[in-house]
Amino acid sequence: MSSANQELKRILLVRNDRLGDLVLTLPAFEAVRHHWPRAHVTVLASPWAGPLLAGTRNHNEVLIDDPNEGAWRLARRLKSMQFDAAIVFNTSTRNCLAVWLARIPQRVCWAYKPVGLLCANRRVALHRSHPPIHEAAFAVAFVRRLGAAASWSGQVPKLEIDAATATRVAARISRELGQEGPLFGVHPGSKNSAYNWPPSHYAELVCQLAQLGRVMVTGHAPENALLQWIRGRLPDKLRKRVAFFTDFGLLELAAALAEQTALTVSSTGPMHVAGIVGTPVVALFSPHPAHAPAKWAPLGTNHTVLVAPLLPGEDPRAVPMGQADMMSRISVDRVVEANVRYAALAAAAPKSGGPRELPGQAA
């Protein structure tokens, strides 16, 4: 690393897209802080994912992005902050142009997007899918390109949830579901980040899990119709064992996930949040290369990854006419089995109050 890079004073980290992408970039944030401990580190984050950073300590400042702000206006904001270097993990045209127009001296972008090639003076020439590279390792490669001797070997970053939030969320869960039996989490929504399980499978899963313990179903307000549809499929005798939550803030959602025995979810943001709070995940993936677990699996090893099987001769790159048809090949029984296994492990674990260390299983 050059002496100039050893003395970087103000570093901008651009990760202003989805929640899951931000979570998987946290190991790269840790690498920046480790190698430039005295630098002032600013993260440019999206309005919907940025609040999660209140639970991390590897930055000095969070700059919330305005998605309606063009590259010129964003560049003016950034120029006034006098950054020495910018790492653009989210290599969009707007982001790359903004750091270039802001005349930030060192600009790290991905080389395999034309705008990254043109606007960067430090380029990451690394293919993401051939072979597939986990997003966390891919992000750390950007930090190396700035000059750090950084690597990622599976470390899980720490998310701190303040005691008041954790207590408030735990009390709410207890009021609505009591405290007896395992607490199964189900998050049926997805912002089209990847193929998702069909609603009918989620409804059947909730019914089966409610016969084994308590079930909390999470989502956000635009997914309320989906959650109400699932609620309508519940037999009357099970309704008291299932609660629906659509109003959690991000750290409240993290606190709720931390209370769960296991979470069933497709490849979307809450899956990644569960990974960093130590909750076992039953993760539902499609076989499409763009959605591969090798790239997008949650951090940690305490998970069961289920991938929809391909039919003989089927091309995983071809988008099926009905993605729900493909994802429905993951049976409800397999998902229930994984949840039951985590419930048994949790019941057998000592009640230490510390972080859970339950072994996961890939399938």
Report on the architecture of this protein.
By secondary structure, the protein is α/β, with parallel strands linked by helices. It is built from 14 helices and 13 strands. The longest helix is centred in the first third of the chain and has 17 residues, at 19-35. The radius of gyration is 21 Å and the shape is globular. Mean pLDDT is 92; it is low at 353-363.
The largest sheet, given as strand count, sense and whether it forms a barrel, is: 7 strands, parallel
Question: Low-confidence stretches at least 5 residues in length (pLDDT < 50)?
Answer: 353-363
Give the class from helix and strand content and strand pairing.
Answer: alpha/beta
Shape, please?
Answer: globular
The separation of the N and C termini measures 41 Å
Q: Order of strands in the sheet with the most strands? A: 9-8-7-10-11-12-13
Number of strands: 13
Average pLDDT number: 92
Q: Give the % helix.
A: 25-40%
Q: What is the element string, with H for helices and E for strands?
A: HEHEEHEHEHEHHEHEHEHEHEHEHHE
Radius of gyration: 21 Å
β-sheet strand percentage: 15-25%
Number of helices: 14
Question: What is this structure's SSE topology?
Answer:
Blueprint: H1 3-6, E1 10-15, H2 19-35, E2 40-45, E3 61-64, H3 71-80, E4 85-88, H4 93-101, E5 106-110, H5 114-119, E6 122-124, H6 135-146, H7 163-177, E7 183-187, H8 199-210, E8 214-218, H9 224-232, E9 242-245, H10 250-259, E10 262-266, H11 269-277, E11 281-285, H12 293-296, E12 303-307, H13 323-327, H14 332-348, E13 361-362
Parallel strand pairs: 1-2, 1-4, 2-3, 4-5, 5-6, 7-8, 7-10, 8-9, 10-11, 11-12, 12-13
Helix pairs in contact: 2-6, 2-11, 3-4, 7-10, 8-9, 8-14, 10-11
